[in-house]
Each structure stands twice: as C-alpha cells, then as structure tokens.
Amino acid sequence: MSSAIMPTYYSQLPIAFEYGKGAWLWDTEGNKYLDGLSGIAVCSLGHAHPSITAAICEQANKVLHTSNTFLIPKQMKLAERLTQLSGMEQAYFCNSGAEANETALKLTRMYARKKNISQPIVITMLNGFHGRTFGTLSASGLTRLQEGFEPILPGFIHIPYNDINALAALTDNKNIVAIMVEPIQGDGGIAIPTEDYLTKIRALCDQHDWLMILDEVQTGIGRTGHWFAYQHFNILPDILTVAKALANGLPIGACLARGKANNLFPPGKHGCTFGGNPFVCNTALAVLDTIENEKIIENCNEIGTYLLHTLKETLGSIKEIITVRGKGLMIGIELDRPCRDITLIGLKHRLLFNVVSDRVIRLLPPLIINKEEADQIVNRLQMIIKEFLQN
Ligand SMILES: Cc1ncc(COP(=O)(O)O)c(C=O)c1O
Prior knowledge:
Elements: E1 17-21, E2 24-27, E3 32-35, H1 38-41, H2 50-60, H3 73-86, E4 90-94, H4 97-114, E5 121-125, H5 134-139, H6 143-146, E6 156-159, H7 164-168, E7 176-181, H8 197-208, E8 211-215, E9 239-242, E10 253-257, H9 278-293, H10 296-315, E11 321-327, E12 330-335, H11 342-348, E13 351-352, E14 354-356, E15 360-363, H12 371-390
Parallel strand pairs: 3-13, 5-6, 5-7, 7-8, 8-9
Antiparallel strand pairs: 1-2, 2-3, 4-10, 9-10, 11-12, 12-15, 14-15
Helix pairs in contact: 2-9, 3-9, 10-12
The structure holds pyridoxal-5'-phosphate (PLP).
C-alpha cells in the first residue's frame, strides 16, 4: 500500500492483477484466479470481452467526450435502449451508483415542492446501502458508515428491511414523499425479501402518492436473472437507479424515471461534466447488445440456479453455515461467525470473493461463467471454508 494513497479501504488484499480473460484474472506474479466477484458486480461480461474491447477502441478512435453542452447521439440511443428494457421513460446519466441515487433523492425534493411539502421525508431501510455522498450516506441504513460524518442529513426515516408492517405504520405521516429500497440488499448481506414485499411496497406507494425508488445499482443489468430484479414481480418503480455493470468497468450511472417522476428537473437544475459521454455510452450500448446477443441473462438463470443448488448440497452439511441464499448470480453464504479474513484463504485457493455484513461470503461472478467454472467455485469454496473453520 502506498502512503501516497488515502487509506480508505481497510481490506485491500495484497495482490494486483495484470490482465484477465473471461472469468479469470492473472496477478503480477503470473498466478491465475477464478473471479467470483467481478470487481463487485461490475465486470458481468468478464474481462477483456472482445465485443466490449472493440467498442472501446472504436469510440476512442473517434471522440471521447464533448460535454452535455451538445447533443450526444450515443447517449440518446442508450436512453432509448434502457427505457425500453426497463419500462421507464426518461434517463439521466452520471458516473456512479452514488450519483445515480443522489439524482433520485434530488428528484424527491422536486416532487415535494410540486406537492407543497416543505419538510419532505424519504423512507429507507436499515442495512441498506446507497452510496457515500452526503445524501446517499444519509439515506443508507448502515450506521457504521455514517459514524464520524455527523450531522448526517435530515429527511430520512430508516425502517427494518422486509417489514411491510413497519412501512404501513408510517402512512399517516404527510411529509413522506418516497421510499427507496434495494430489491435484494447487497452490502447488507445478500438479504432477499419475501416474494410479495416489492409488490406491497408498490401498492402502498400508489395508495399514498409516494415515489417508489428502486436502487438496482447492484442487482440491475441481468445480475438476478432478469434485466432488473423488479421484473421478477411484474411491477414498475417510479424511479430506477443503475450503475456498476452497465459499462462492464467504465464508470457510468443512470437514474431513470417514469410517470409522475418525469420532467421534474427544469433545465439547469442538475447535471455533471462527464455524465453520458460518447465513450461510456458507446461501451454501455455494446454491453446491452452483448447481453442480448449472447443470451447472458439466460446463462445467468441457468448457471445461477445450478450454482446455488450445488452450493447448498455441498456446503449444507457444514454446521457453521447458517444459510446459502441468492437469486441469479448474486449469492450469499452466511456463517455463524465473523469471517472477513476468509478472503485471504480464498486467495491461496485462487478464488476471488468478498465478505459483507461481517459474516456473509458474497459471490458475484461474471454472468458468463459456465458449469465447469461454477463447479470450480464450489470446490474451491468448500476447501476455503473448511480451512477457515479449522483455524
Ligand atoms: C445497492 C447499491 N447502491 C449504491 C451503491 C454505490 O455505488 P457506487 O460505489 O458506484 O457509488 C452501491 C455500491 O456498492 C450499491 O451496491
């Protein structure tokens, strides 16, 4: 670790990667690793995918950036593709998940003004994670991340995740304008809500004229076996945020809106320099095309089901494992004890993953993995967990 870098990441592992291919990465010593993390749900098409590399080179040879002062045809095309895939109607582009969520939060303020609510409240979830900017940090329900940055912004009520009664108990509060929630909590420990949770939230939002904001920064772009996780439940949010996998490693975020969330920003009210530039939008278009052409979501469903089943079968008898749970290729293995250091044993066995909520092993492999690679994840993980428990 260089002292010239602010030490913000306490768990930086002692290796660096030189190159990758598909679901595999090689470190600077030439060791080969199976990627079970995809740079935290980003490189869903794996590393050095030829179609993505070609799109990057093609656009780099033309123009990278012009600014939103001018029309950006690739941005318009990407907005059209994303709205068509998601059922949303308008898109705003930025550079990260936090920025996409910040945009969503600012939309709620515009919505509140329209409704003459001067002290608007957004309901968010305990253990939820929406980013590290002041707005998104305040929205997040991971209090340990907020510690030291107080005072955090007012205007949020945090309630337990997957508790529809806690939400229903707030319906008398006339200052509430929106609810913001992850369809599956990622950093909160791969928490999967009950089947009717999102549908019930949708109904309460309709009943009380609240905006339903779904943070699909981690779950979106095919990760759970649909383009977006809410598509498992036949509902639509009013606002949808995406980032991470949208350009397979180039920084991009998007906040999408529809219906009463459309046209809330008047010109000049919101924006950013890099957002939606030709380079990143062309790459994102190539990502969406590749997902479609190569039937990546079908693969995610097939291999995700197989991997989850095999993990349950193989690890089920280990008494220290509380649950193996997941949807698509977003999988959590919860141990009965803190296990942050297990990632080091993972390195020894050349498997990459991380730990969330202190004791949940999080697997987010590229959506392109095949059955043999899924088997290797299971075999390596079995050895890793056994070795961890013996220590
Ligand atoms: C659900 C969710 N929302 C927001 C974010 C923040 O995204 P970013 O790190 O790109 O700002 C993350 C990042 O992990 C996330 O998982």
